[in-house]
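re: that chain from earlier
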Amino acid sequence: MAPTLVNVAVGVLLGVALLGIAFDRRSIAIVGLAAALPDLDAALALLVPGATNAAFHSLFLAAIVGSVLYWDTERRETSWLRGRYGLYGVRVAWVAVASFVVAGIVFDLFTSVGVALLYPLVDRYYVVSGRLVLSSQEGVVQTYFDLGEGWLALETTGRTSTHRIDTWVTPTDDERRLRLVESGWQLVVVLTAIAAVPAKYALEGGEP
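^ sequence. v structure.
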């Protein structure tokens, strides 16, 4: 799984891009927090073995949250969220859901440990890894996705019952490691998010 700090940074960048007139300190904090929420399943693993990168990384959970928000804001005769917080609240809520899904769940799908996207229906961890190359001899070469028996096949790293994921809460050895940044590109993402927030305020003539 990616360090939570990196998930938050990606969420902040989504907030800068999508919040629009709803952008302020509170909204960007909510969106950043939404990106971190899926990683709380590491703590749940203390009670439910195999919950890490599964329980709160499930697309079913994201679908439930999104469906409730859609029902309240689009289908319900009187929206509770719109009535209490106005268009500001609706926009922040939808961007927070996007941050939860994209920065919190899908982003971890591109790491080496994988994500149990269909948990609890399917207990396998899936990961997207590969390369995309434009070759003068072979043309376009991509190894991210394979079509197996007519279905889109993803690489799997194991099952929730057998695949252990090292976290600060549930280490795989005697040493606890709080991973903040693990590579140069992750540091670039974090620094970009840190710079993007005051830059957004400056462009809009606000105060950081």
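The chain is about 45% helix and 10% strand.
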